[in-house]
């Protein structure tokens, strides 16, 4: 059982003017797999390094099992960490790399041997224990780094972009392996990545960060379906959400610049009006898969359609991505590839505004 | 066809100037001195080639019966055995300490420790001779101030060798420290972070991470330092002329004395070849040890 509480944590580097992490508060439950995601420089790595004890906490408290550990040395926090560049000691064999921490902690020889072999079995590297890291592939090195964390049997794993040095295919398979490992070991894990796909596929909960601040915390489904603000909406999901600058007029939204208008569904309209956005500017966000080309949709919602030109059409197999243009505004629609469209064709698409997101253009917060 | 030949010749034309210099000023002199070492060439021989005779191995045989040469060999071994480890250990320790911090003080220290190696040995040796002066020198003055007796730095047979080693170590630290510093800065920071999480103390990190990571630079520094100390010359030449009573004489100085002061070129050449062989041997042993360590 382990619980991790981050309470109003701030980080400012010695020679920096601004805070790298601002007011970071989060409670992490036992066995949870939490992913910190955000663009580079958002403070996610700094935060995980503060948890590890590799960086000082400027303000706020870090609690492990209810005990403030701000001033504890990394080795006393009982945390295992996997680094982006693996950080395997090049002069030591795989066995020595994995047993180094145990030796320093004065485990008995038999105990070390058992743990290392056990971990090697889990990561599938039993035959490679005598090899030096230089004689291993990138994926194998990453496994050794995981193994080094496993042997410690620490209650908390920290992973700082562990897959970013691997090629795309390996990344996908290692992603699944780490998820499997977590199911098997049930170790509380904090995982840092800039890749929203990794975050979506692995996390129990995602923490989305930008400029040192938490933007939203939630399950993958929650942050995808109900982004708290424009940034979360644009960051999560691939291809990214499309945005339109519109004005709410009566029961329609208008884009005067690009010359189209759409009818707003009743429920949505009520909320927008009650929040005082009647006649005001809004930002409409709509995901590529919520833009439809099927005849049935266009017939049922004739007032939710736009006439566009298709610039590029990418066939991905089961689905196609259409790069469309209305006026000067470009957007992407993800459609069934049975409705394959030739580039340059004119096309009527329907926007499913029931699934749309409305943001305040000033505060960028979600309205609906 | 012709084009192909040009392509093959191209690299050789690029290295030709360097090769020419190497042959003219290193290879040929080495061969000539090897030839000389089997002759009785001396000052008369220079004027009258007819007087030069091949005398086989007698120069080498005489060398090993020459107590002055044997003393020089003993002294040189002493210099090597004390000096080389001292240089490596001290420059490594200083590099690690300087690498500890990044602020101005540590940058200043880098300069402080490097300066001796860009100074002229002769000039520095003269200054150190003053400092070592038994009655008026700075060092004895300080020793007296703190209530210790005077030391005959350059006059005592047992101490003089140490005095020269101190100077030479002081001078050699700078460059080697720089080599170690460069290597230290190439060690990824996350090795230390991983070790810290593994529970390694600063000392354990130094032993298990830093020193193994510096293996190649330690090897490089030991080879170059070893070769340098086998040829130990400047310091005894300027400060003691090999005295007192030959106690600081080195093989290199012995070669100089015999070759250029007494003009026994054949004899000096044979002594220099003994030195040459010793250096090659020592370097080969080091390479072997290094290989063994790597494969073992």
From TrEMBL, chain A:
Q: Does the keyword Heme apply?
A: no
Q: Does the keyword Transport apply?
A: yes
- Superkingdom assignment: Bacteria
Keywords on this record? ATP-binding, Nucleotide-binding, Transport
Q: Where is the ABC transporter domain?
A: 4-236
GO CC annotation: what is one? ATP-binding cassette (ABC) transporter complex, substrate-binding subunit-containing
GO MF, one term, reads: ATP binding
Q: Provide the GO biological process annotations.
A: carbohydrate transport
Stored CDD domains: ABC_MalK_N
Q: NCBIfam families, per this entry?
A: PRK11650.1
Name this polypeptide is given: sn-glycerol-3-phosphate ABC transporter ATP-binding protein UgpC
Organism of origin? Leuconostoc litchii
Q: Which gene encodes it?
A: ugpC
TrEMBL record, chain B:
According to the entry, every stretch annotated as the ABC transmembrane type-1 domain falls at: 73-286
* Protein name per its UniProtKB record: Sugar ABC transporter permease
Record-linked Pfam families: BPD_transp_1
Chief localisation class: membrane
Compartments (UniProt record):
Cell membrane
Please report the record's description of how this protein sits within the membrane: Multi-pass membrane protein
InterPro entries documented for this protein: ABC_transporter_permease, MalF_N, MetI-like, MetI-like_sf
Family listed: Belongs to the binding-protein-dependent transport system permease family.
Arranged from A to Z, the UniProt key words for this protein are:
Cell membrane, Membrane, Transmembrane, Transmembrane helix, Transport
Instruction: From the UniProt record, give one GO term of the biological process aspect.
Output: transmembrane transport
Q: Which chain regions cross the lipid bilayer?
A: 12-36, 77-99, 111-131, 162-184, 214-232, 265-285
What Gene Ontology cellular component terms go with this record?
A: plasma membrane
């Amino acid at each position: 059982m382990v619980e991790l509480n981050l309470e109003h944590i701030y980080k400012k580097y010695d020679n920096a003017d601004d805070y790298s992490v601002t007011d970071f508060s989060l409670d992490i439950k036992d066995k949870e797999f939490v992913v910190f995601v955000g663009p580079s420089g958002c403070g996610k790595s700094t935060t995980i390094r503060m948890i590890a004890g590799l960086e000082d906490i400027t303000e706020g408290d870090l609690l492990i099992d209810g005990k403030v550990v701000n001033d504890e040395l990394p080795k006393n926090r009982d945390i295992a960490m996997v680094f982006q560049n693996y950080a395997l000691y090049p002069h030591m064999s795989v066995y020595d790399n994995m047993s180094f921490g145990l030796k320093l902690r004065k485990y008995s020889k038999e105990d070390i041997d058992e743990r290392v072999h056990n971990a090697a079995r889990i990561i599938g590297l039993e035959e490679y224990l005598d090899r030096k890291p230089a004689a291993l592939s990138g994926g194998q090195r990453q496994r050794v780094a995981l193994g080094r964390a496993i042997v410690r049997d620490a209650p908390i794993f920290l992973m700082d972009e562990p897959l970013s040095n691997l090629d795309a295919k390996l990344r996908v398979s290692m992603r699944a392996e780490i998820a499997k490992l977590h199911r098997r070991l049930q170790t509380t894990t904090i995982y840092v990545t800039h890749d929203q796909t990794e975050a979506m596929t692995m996390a129990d909960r995602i923490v989305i960060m930008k400029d040192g601040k938490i933007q939203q915390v939630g399950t993958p489904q929650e942050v995808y379906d109900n982004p708290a603000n424009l940034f979360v909406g644009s960051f999560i999901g691939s291809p990214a959400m499309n945005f339109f600058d519109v004005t709410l007029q009566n029961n329609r939204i208008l884009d005067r610049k690009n010359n189209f208008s759409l009818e707003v569904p009743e429920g949505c309209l009520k909320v927008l009006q009650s929040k005082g956005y009647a006649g005001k500017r809004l930002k409409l966000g709509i995901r590529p898969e919520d833009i439809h080309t099927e005849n049935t949709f266009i017939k049922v919602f004739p007032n939710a359609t736009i006439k566009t030109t298709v610039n590029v059409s990418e066939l991905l197999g089961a689905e196609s991505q259409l790069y469309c243009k209305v006026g000067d505004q470009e957007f992407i629609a993800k459609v069934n590839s049975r409705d394959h469209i030739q580039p340059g064709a004119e096309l009527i698409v329907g926007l499913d505004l029931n699934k749309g997101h409305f943001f305040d253009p000033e505060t960028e917060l979600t309205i609906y | 066809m012709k084009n192909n030949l040009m392509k093959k010749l191209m690299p050789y034309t690029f290295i030709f100037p360097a090769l020419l210099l190497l042959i003219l000023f290193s290879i040929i002199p080495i061969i000539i001195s090897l030839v000389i070492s089997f002759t009785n060439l001396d000052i008369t021989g220079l004027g009258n080639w007819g007087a030069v005779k091949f005398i086989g191995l007698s120069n080498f045989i005489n060398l090993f019966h020459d107590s002055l040469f044997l003393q020089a060999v003993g002294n040189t071994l002493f210099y090597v055995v004390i000096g080389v480890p001292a240089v490596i250990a001290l420059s490594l320790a200083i590099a690690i300490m300087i690498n500890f911090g990044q602020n101005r003080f540590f940058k200043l220290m880098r300069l402080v420790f490097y300066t001796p190696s860009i100074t002229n040995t002769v000039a520095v040796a003269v200054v150190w001779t003053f400092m070592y002066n038994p009655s008026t020198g700075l060092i004895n003055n300080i020793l007296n101030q703190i209530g210790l007796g005077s030391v005959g730095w350059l006059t005592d047979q047992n101490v003089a060798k140490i005095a020269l080693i101190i100077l030479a170590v002081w001078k050699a630290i700078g460059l080697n420290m720089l080599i170690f510093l460069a290597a230290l800065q190439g060690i990824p920071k996350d090795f230390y972070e991983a070790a810290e999480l593994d529970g390694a103390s600063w000392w354990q990190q130094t032993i298990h991470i830093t020193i193994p990571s510096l293996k190649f630079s330690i090897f490089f520094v030991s080879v170059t330092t070893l070769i340098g100390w086998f040829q130990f010359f400047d310091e005894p030449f300027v400060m003691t002329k090999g005295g007192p009573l030959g106690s600081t004489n080195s093989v290199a100085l012995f070669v100089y004395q015999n070759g250029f002061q007494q003009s026994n070129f054949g004899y000096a050449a044979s002594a220099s070849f003994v030195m040459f062989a010793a250096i090659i041997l020592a370097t080969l042993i080091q390479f072997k040890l290094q290989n063994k360590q790597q494969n073992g």
